[in-house]
Amino acid sequence: MQDLTPTAAPSPWLLRWQRHFGAGQTALDLACGSGRHVRWLRGRGLQVCAVDRDARALAALQDSGAELLVADLEGAPWPLADRRFDLVLVTNYLWRPLLPRLIEAVAPGGWLVYETFAEGHQLLGRPSRPDFLLRHGELLEAARGLRIVAYEDGFADGDGAGVNPRQIQRVAAVRERTPGDPQARYHLP
Questions:
Q1: In this structure, are strands 106-117 and 166-174 parallel, antiparallel, or unpaired?
Q2: Which end of the chain is more exposed for a tag (fewer CB within 10 A), N or C?
Q3: Which of the seven top EC classes does this enzyme belong to (predicted)?
Q4: How far apart are the C-alpha atoms of 51 and 73, rounded to whole Å?
Q5: What is the CA radius of gyration of the chain?
Q6: Residue from 149, 178, 115 nearest 20 by CA
Q7: 151-178: pLDDT as tens digits
Q8: CATH number of 12-174
């Protein structure tokens, strides 16, 4: 479950790629909770679309300047139609039917930064149901079609941001731009 503390530190996985995100870019923070990443991204000048099913959690972001969207991501149609983002960010959330939509939402030259629980975490705590745990290599497979910049699948010790040790998968991937595409403004590391 997403940390609902607005002052919680951003994920170290997101911070690892921060040099690629800045003013004028667009970001989607999916299942954002009360917005630890939304506020950080807005502070860097990104235009953020924050999506969560919990209206009370999003209420904490009313003053953030982000576009707030209350949406049932699991029981309703994809709420973002054909929108594309320079950054698609997901942490501590998994709904497998959305994985293709998330990949499609990455704009040319844009990034997917995804981190969530994986098999083996059931030995450490919640979540423990297989529905909420990625299978070995599943996130890597889901990101096929993007250029994988980094991938991790294993144990992560507590990260100093109030997050307990956990079994996770993480991917950072880029949709490569096509030559002459004016929408593709960013470069790979």
A1: antiparallel
A2: C
A3: transferase
A4: 9
A5: 16
A6: 149
A7: 988 667 765 555 676 667 799 999 998 7
A8: 3.40.50.150
Instruction: Check if the beta carbon of residue 121 is closer than 8 Å to that of residue 128.
Output: yes
Cβ pair 177, 110 in contact under 8 A: no
| Number of residues written out for the chain | 189
Task: Return the structure tokens found at 16.
Answer: 């690892």
Q: What are the structural domain ranges in the chain?
A: 12-174
pLDDT tens, position by position, 98-118: 999 999 999 999 999 999 877
Tokens of 140: 């890597």
Q: Which two tokens stand for residue 52?
A: 């969560």
106's tokens: 């990455």
Note the helical H segments in 28-160: 36-43, 55-59, 99-104, 138-142
Cα–Cα distance for residue pair 61/5, rounded to 1 Å: 11
How far is Cα 135 from Cα 139, in angstroms, rounded to an integer?
A: 8
